[in-house]
Amino acid sequence: MRSMLSFRIRQNKPREGAALNFYATRTGVFDDRSVATGSLFAACTAMALRVDELQGRVVHLERALQSNRQIGTALGILMARELYTEEHAFDLLREASQRLNRKLADIADEVTVTGLLPHFDRPQH
């Protein structure tokens, strides 16, 4: 390697850095046109990284919304069937999740399908 042209990739994450590097086997091959072209590539790369980050956020939010709906449905089922308050129904879902070592949304999904809270041993007071 005799020449290198490097561009910083700007990101929204201040503690993370990225660079786009071009290498050549001869010296003096990078001119103003190379710099302009590299700048465009760097800008496009930054945009692609941002799009990827935002798509990941969208997927996360969609999952969170679906989980929230599952939990709300399960709460409604427990409240209607057992005449629990919303707070008590949620406490039972949470406790089942913790004792069975399963995600709260999975417990809620089971309640939605079966109409019943999965069995778990409750400590004696």
Explained architecture:
The protein is mainly alpha-helical. It has a single domain (3-114), classed as Winged helix-like DNA-binding domain superfamily/Winged helix DNA-binding domain (Arc Repressor Mutant, subunit A), CATH 1.10.10.10. The protein is built from three helices and two strands. The chain has helices spanning 32-82, 86-100, 104-114, and strands spanning 3-9, 18-24. A two-stranded antiparallel ribbon has the order 1-2. Helix 1 crosses helix 2 (86-100) and helix 2 packs across helix 3 (104-114). The longest helix has 51 residues, at 32-82. The protein is rod-shaped. It starts with a strand and ends in an 11-residue tail after the last helix. The model has no long low-confidence stretch (mean pLDDT 95).
What's the topology here?
Blueprint: E1 3-9, E2 18-24, H1 32-82, H2 86-100, H3 104-114
Antiparallel strand pairs: 1-2
How would you concisely characterize the structure shown here?
Helix content is 62%, strand content 11%. The chain has 125 residues and is mainly alpha-helical.
Whole-number mean pLDDT: 95
Number of helices: 3
Low-confidence stretches: none
Oligomeric category: single chain
Structural class: mainly alpha
State the order of secondary-structure elements, H for helix, E for strand. EEHHH
Helix content: 55-70%
Number of DSSP strand runs: 2
The fourth-level CATH homologous superfamily is Winged helix-like DNA-binding domain superfamily/Winged helix DNA-binding domain
Give a quick account of the main beta sheet: strands, pairing sense, barrel closure. Answer: 2 strands, antiparallel
Q: How widely separated are the two ends?
A: 73 Å
Query: How would you write the strand order of the largest sheet?
Result: 1-2
Named at the architecture level, the CATH assignment is Orthogonal Bundle
Structural shape: rod-shaped
CATH class label: Mainly Alpha
Rg calculated over all Cα atoms: 27 Å
User: Beta-strand percentage?
Assistant: 5-15%
